From TrEMBL:
<feature type="binding site">
    <location>
        <position position="10"/>
    </location>
    <ligand>
        <name>5-amino-6-(D-ribitylamino)uracil</name>
    </ligand>
</feature>
<feature type="binding site">
    <location>
        <position position="95"/>
    </location>
    <ligand>
        <name>5-amino-6-(D-ribitylamino)uracil</name>
    </ligand>
</feature>
<dbReference type="Pfam" id="PF00885">
    <property type="entry name" value="DMRL_synthase"/>
</dbReference>
<keyword id="KW-0686">Riboflavin biosynthesis</keyword>
<dbReference type="InterPro" id="IPR034964">
    <property type="entry name" value="LS"/>
</dbReference>
<dbReference type="GO" id="GO:0009349">
    <property type="term" value="C:riboflavin synthase complex"/>
</dbReference>
<feature type="active site" description="Proton donor">
    <location>
        <position position="70"/>
    </location>
</feature>
<dbReference type="InterPro" id="IPR002180">
    <property type="entry name" value="LS/RS"/>
</dbReference>
<dbReference type="InterPro" id="IPR036467">
    <property type="entry name" value="LS/RS_sf"/>
</dbReference>
<feature type="binding site">
    <location>
        <begin position="67"/>
        <end position="68"/>
    </location>
    <ligand>
        <name>(2S)-2-hydroxy-3-oxobutyl phosphate</name>
    </ligand>
</feature>
<dbReference type="GO" id="GO:0009231">
    <property type="term" value="P:riboflavin biosynthetic process"/>
</dbReference>
<keyword id="KW-0808">Transferase</keyword>
<feature type="binding site">
    <location>
        <begin position="62"/>
        <end position="64"/>
    </location>
    <ligand>
        <name>5-amino-6-(D-ribitylamino)uracil</name>
    </ligand>
</feature>
<comment type="similarity">
    <text>Belongs to the DMRL synthase family.</text>
</comment>
<feature type="binding site">
    <location>
        <position position="109"/>
    </location>
    <ligand>
        <name>(2S)-2-hydroxy-3-oxobutyl phosphate</name>
    </ligand>
</feature>
<comment type="function">
    <text>Catalyzes the formation of 6,7-dimethyl-8-ribityllumazine by condensation of 5-amino-6-(D-ribitylamino)uracil with 3,4-dihydroxy-2-butanone 4-phosphate. This is the penultimate step in the biosynthesis of riboflavin.</text>
</comment>
<feature type="binding site">
    <location>
        <begin position="38"/>
        <end position="40"/>
    </location>
    <ligand>
        <name>5-amino-6-(D-ribitylamino)uracil</name>
    </ligand>
</feature>
Length: 135
């Protein structure tokens, strides 16, 4: 099975850490595609899912709360959009987007002590792709 990773690069250092975590689970068997940020992940995931080349797509990125409501909108629409792509295409698309209060929380969730969100998203994609294959 071949997989895709689409990553929002708004926080480039976090994006690299998330991709490294996912690639570790995918054993390098994933193509990586970049978009500007988390809001663009759903459309990119749809493009990738519709190619028929990938058994699943890990959608990675980070949204850190700021002083405005922007955080709430981006988080909600990214999550909703990624789920819609999975349901529309039947291709598993995992929500590997950090939705955190600060950079310390983000670093902890990208290989810094807490569960690695990139790896977790890759594990979810593989699990669902295998389930689909079994049916």
């Amino acid at each position: 099975m071949k997989f895709a990773i689409v990553v929002g690069k708004f926080y480039e250092d976090l994006a690299e850490r998330l991709v490294a975590g996912a690639q570790g689970v995918f054993n390098g068997n994933a193509d990586v595609f970049e978009v500007p940020g988390a809001f663009e992940l759903p459309l990119a995931a749809q493009y990738l899912a519709e190619t028929g080349r990938y058994a699943g797509v890990a959608c990675l990125g980070a949204v850190i709360r700021g002083e405005t409501d922007h955080y709430d909108y981006v988080c909600a629409e990214a999550a909703r959009g990624i789920m819609k792509v999975s349901l529309k295409t039947g291709i598993p698309c995992a929500f590997g987007v950090l939705t955190v209060e600060n950079m310390d929380q983000a670093l902890a969730r990208t290989g810094g002590g807490k569960r690695d969100q990139g790896a977790h998203a890759a594990e979810a994609v593989i699990t669902l792709a295998k389930l689909k294959q079994q049916l």
